Amino acid sequence: MRGQSIHNLSDFPVSNTVSPAASLLSNYVHIASETGNEKEAADFMMLQCRNKGLVIEKITYKKGSYNFAASLYPLNLHKPNIIFLNHMDVVPSGDPANWKHPPYEGFIDDGKVWGRGSLDMKGPAIIQLSAIERFVQLAQKEDLPYNVTLLCVSGEETGGAKGSAIVAKNFKELFTPAIVIGEGGSGIEKVSFLPKGKTYFGVSIIEKKPLWLKLSCSLHSAGHASIVGKNYANLHLINGLHKLVMMRQPIKMTSEAMLMFRSTGNIVGGLRGFTIKHINWLIFKPFLNHYVYQNPELESILCNTITVSNLGNADASPNQNAQKATALVDCRLLPGTSPEEMINFINRKIKDTLLHVSIVQQGPNQITTQPEFFFEKLAKAIKQTYTNAEVVPILFPASNDNSYYRAAGCPVYGLNPIIMSPLQIKSIHNNDEYIELEKIDKGIEVLETFLRSILILPDATRSSTTMHQQ
To answer: Which CATH architecture has domain 9-206+368-469?
Structure first.
């Protein structure tokens, strides 16, 4: 039943023992919390956090803008804070008939929790909460060197204006952040240009900037479609969009991409490692061009992207020629590319003065978080959990709320602490979204190991580390 927040796992055919975290996720997915309708999800998560002994602080709690924090200690103690960021909203599910299991049932089958948000980002949120929960009793007995906070926000899927854009204001004063860990990189077992047999985890240190544009053409031409000729609004728009989607974006080697390549080259070693470390050398340009344009994951890291996301006309009969045509275009910008540069690039390529380009929405400016103490702790926790894993800093090819907190002056890493298959990655924002039960447990282990390495320290180390972070 769509929108019902609590159900019994016995209602579903579960062949294996289900962990408390998987059971909780199943219930959470059961709530249809599409952007703008997060209240029931917020109430549910706040109740779970309160029942687990966390201290709740509402930041905003009104329609379309439900944002709250749940912490080991009250925020007003101003302890250095490790903050796990997640969003409660999900994208629309589309036609339920296209799903293997109903999108808002949280169905458990074949060792997976199925449903909208199971991977983006309710699953990672439950992983975060489950890891924090394991330190509640310790925090009640001891004065730990850090606070740990679960930060749940609204509206991420539509740009964060009702969520992180609000929360990030006065963020440092309220949260005393030492580090923010949001969504971002994950583990991948097969990377086409890297040696087999290892799992490669990317921890994002920056994301692309989202830029949503509207292309429009208004042209007063014949009203009847049979006599319109070759000069009408829809044709101008189609020709312009065709030029955009068919051209290759130029490769741009950002400093963040070079850091990723150098780190990867050090791991790989040998001649291949040397090539990867120096991939920006002119001699390797043919090699780079070949692999970038043959591998979408590399292309998205080294190139700006342009995707036509929506086409529209005013309602009319089939034989009526539209006098105005519009399209929405999703652009993701690499560091160093401004919205003005992208708009100028588009205008140069389409070469049509009748097409007007305007900005619908854009994300905050990009700031890089350089790998440091918390990055190394995350990397060590990943390697302890996944024994064949390697960890590298990456430029994340999508966009999320992390940029708001970097813009507020906070270090931020992006990590979903699980291994994702190509099929699973394709399920994000798609039908049949899922997360494996085993990966939920592994993700909890990563974050618990990370927190344990920071919160439970010898006295001397604890004192010096705390002073350093303050």
So the answer is: 3-Layer(aba) Sandwich (3.40)
